[in-house]
Every structure is written in structure tokens, then in C-alpha cells.
Amino acid sequence: MNENKNTFHCSLTPRFTDLDTWRHVNNSRIYQLHQEARLQAHLDLFGPDAWFSDEVRLRPLRSITDFRQVTWYGSEVKAQVQVQTCTNDDYRVRSDLFQNGEHVGTQQALMGAYENGKRVDLPAATRERLEAIVSNDAQLLPTPDYVERVGLVTSFPVIQQLTPRYADLDADSQRSEAALARYMEQARFGAIRHLDLGGLGILIASMDVSYLHFQAGWKPVDLRAGINRIGNSSFVFTGCATSEHGLQAAANSVMVVIDQASGRPAPIPDVLREQLQGLKI
Predict the structure, then answer these.
(1) pTM for the complete prediction?
(2) Under CATH, domain 1-141 is a member of which superfamily?
(3) Confidence bin at 104 (pLDDT 50/70/90)
């Protein structure tokens, strides 16, 4: 950790394969930049071998990612990471990304400890090291009521199956958090691809993901999604991934309709609003 306010700094380089069809860095790849910055800070704090464990493993319980500006290929991304809070059974990490002098994104990750696939308290040595650098400047996170909501929905308007891949495993042979973030993206895309945008575009503004477990499996994963709120120029997708081990992840994603020429938010036209109403849960 940097001696200056216990903030860790590093540089990350977007790759050509991180680009989406809009020719900017895809939102799931932005998520992975935050993950990498968080992991680099973890290694700086706990040592170069701290990226793996065969006993207690640290994984996110929840992450809230705000996509503040578009991130582009060809320029380095500067990252800074702080540990905001630490308790007996979780801690919270904030990462901020900057590109070309612009603050392009923020993520708050609530981290917990797992042993043999079950939640446990943080190891004492881990907690003590984190407490030594904690900033204690975090605001309360909103209640993740969408997790309960997906459990109550009997019929989602969009349901699709996804076959797990070897690449969905992390270095500890668990379902990776990056894979689960991509699952949430795919759940949204299953609905978005059928929308007639009438020349408008859609960008993701924020994504709030709760991780219920990281158990791997090879049976098809059910992705379910629907819309729970429609505003003037934005709407909110609620989605989830259900595996053979039950509900694995759930998410709320705020999507913004934009004018493609200006890149600015645009009011949702009546034709599009009617389509969105058909996707409500």
C-alpha cells in the first residue's frame, strides 16, 4: 500500500479484445479492471503468493460498479484502491479508475471469507492487516432487495440457458466472479437484443451484483431477467443466474438510453417504452 493515506496505485492496459461492438471497453471488461486493481492491491498488502489459497478464500459478497465515463482502447488506465471498512466477517474495498485525466469508474466490493464453500469469519491475521490500513470513510450501501425479488418472481419475461465453460473457472477451480459478472451481462443482452431502439443507443450506468456462492458445475445455468423500473431516460434490469446449486448471483443494472450523435441521455420514446413495459416483472 502507498504510504500516502494507505491508497494503492497501479496502471492497467485495456486490450483490443476488451472492446465491444461500440468500440469502447466492454462493461464486463471494466469490471475485470476493477478486479485486477483490487487483486494487485491485495498482493501488495499480503505478499506475491496471496493470489491463491487452498484453505480460506476471499471472494466478493457484493459489488457495485459505477460506469462514469466511456473507457477507450489505446490509453492506460490508472487505478487506486482503498480498504474502507473491516469487521469480523467482511471488509469493503473501493477502487477508482482514471483514463486521460478523467474519472471513468468506481467500484465498491464487499468481501468475505469462504472455506470449503461456506462463509466463515476473516482469518485473524488477515483482519488485523486490513484494520491497520482501513480508511473508515464509507457510506452505507443500499439494501440489496433485488436478491429477494428474484426469489419471488414466478415468471421472468426473458429466460435463457448458458453452458458453463472451462474459462468460467478461476485459479482455485471455483466459478469466477468475472464469469458471474458476464452471466449478468448475458442475461441483460438476451432482452436488449430484441429491442427496436429506433437509432438510439443504450449504455450501462451501474451494476449491483450479489454473489450467493462460487460453486462450479457443468450443468446448464439458467439466466433470467426482466425490468423492474422505467424512468424518463433510464430503466433497471433485474437478473439472476441459477445453477445446479441454486441461486448463484443476482443483479440490478441501470441502463441509460442515449443519443448516439451526442452521447447524452435521451428521453425514452413511446415505442421503446411500450417494448420495455412488455419486459416488466
Answers:
(1) 0.94
(2) Hotdog Thioesterase (3.10.129.10)
(3) very high
